[in-house]
Specification:
Length: about 350
């Protein structure tokens, strides 16, 4: 056997905002997939603190959450040595390239972004300018590493399209081929985890009700209490996926159970058909505790030594800066900026 490194399928960039407690949706919808992707791609994972402040964050809480997100990724199985794990604000090239992209992207493009409309709500005048240009920063996050692939959920597809448009326009305007057009990596089924209180809303860090989500740091008792209180309906569990029509909460709990046990919805329906919710909730609790318990314990261990987390992140940002500065210099040269003396 030769000791040569296996051929990787491309370079991935992905991130999580340190906007509160990591939850089961972040785990099942993002982190768990990244753990799998690190085997076949060169991966850069970042804690996107610049994105987080597009809506108000308490400074102390932002600092805590930044380390906690890093700890959550490592505890879930992301290898910070084989991959590059870092904090976005530690790599200035993200913000610098984003400025160039603010000048490449058209207002008309940004006006079509549905996430801005959703997040800004009715009173757009009061939304930050950062929230509006958030997709340009996301394009910079990806393109400053010439990432070839980006794992995206439904909610981020439109932003990835915009990143591709920006890359194409930049290359075209300046007559260069600096940026590749990044491809989406579509996640498997069951990856959209909904609120435990309302099956029509996604599970979210910023939901004011802690009972709407299972946090990755929840204790066994917290998880049991939240699952027990999760909204359901008066029926029993169905014997086919059709039996979930109009039953968003039941569908969500079954999807969570399927994702946690790495099975399809059909397979878990075959197991649970005819069960009362009380019986199913006990099973779901047991399963969630078995999956999240060890991750939580590892997160606590890591969080007890914040200096070590900071060291890991510092090593990550060194690796990230080395790539990003080179790509930024290439982009700046294309634009016609006078080269910086080093
Ligand atoms: N409910 C979810 N189901 C599946 N995937 C989810 N993700 C988030 N919520 C769910 C995925 O987690 C990754 C990181 O998301 P993020 O922190 O960058 O922002 P978000 O999507 O806006 O997550 P939240 O929890 O809803 O944060 P807030 O409340 O701050 O807006 C992404 O890959 C996302 O798809």
């Amino acid at each position: 056997m030769s000791g040569s490194t296996p051929q990787l399928a491309g370079r991935i960039l992905s991130g999580i905002q340190p906007t509160g407690n990591l939850h089961l949706g972040n785990y099942l919808g993002a982190i768990r997939n990244w753990v799998a992707l690190q085997k076949s791609f060169e991966c850069l994972f970042c804690v996107v603190d610049l994105h987080a402040i597009t809506v108000w964050q308490e400074p102390k809480e932002l600092l805590r959450a930044t380390r906690e997100v890093a700890a959550g990724m490592i505890a879930s199985g992301i290898d910070p040595v084989a991959n590059t794990l870092f904090v976005q604000s530690h790599v200035p090239a993200h913000a610098e390239l984003a400025w160039v992209f603010n000048c490449v992207a058209r207002l008309g493009w940004l006006n079509r972004m549905t996430q801005f409309k959703d997040k800004a709500g009715k009173d757009k005048e009061k939304a930050s300018a950062g929230l509006y240009v958030y997709p340009n920063l996301m394009a910079a996050d990806i393109l400053v590493y010439k990432a070839t692939h980006v794992p995206v959920g439904e909610d981020q597809k439109q932003h990835l399209e915009l990143a591709r448009d920006i890359a194409a326009k930049f290359n075209n305007d300046y007559g260069v081929n600096v940026f590749p057009l990044p491809e989406p990596v579509i996640k498997g089924p069951g990856t959209r985890v909904m609120s435990l209180r309302d099956g029509a809303k996604k599970m979210s860090k910023s939901d004011p009700s802690d009972f709407s989500r299972i946090n990755m740091t929840d204790t066994q008792d917290d998880i049991a209490g939240k699952v027990r209180k999760a909204t359901t309906d008066p029926g029993t569990l169905p014997d086919s996926p059709q039996g979930l029509e109009g039953r968003a909460e039941a569908a969500n709990l079954l999807n969570i159970y399927a994702a946690l046990t790495d099975r399809t919805l059909e397979q878990v329906i075959a197991e649970t058909a005819g069960w009362q919710f009380s019986q199913f909730k006990a099973k779901l609790t047991e399963t969630a505790v078995a999956v999240l318990g060890p991750i939580n314990a590892e997160m606590q261990r890591l969080m007890a030594d914040p200096a070590e987390i900071d060291r890991v992140l510092a090593r990550g940002s060194e690796k990230a800066n080395a790539i990003a500065e080179t790509v930024l210099a290439e982009a700046y040269a294309a634009v016609g900026f006078l080269p910086r003396k080093r």
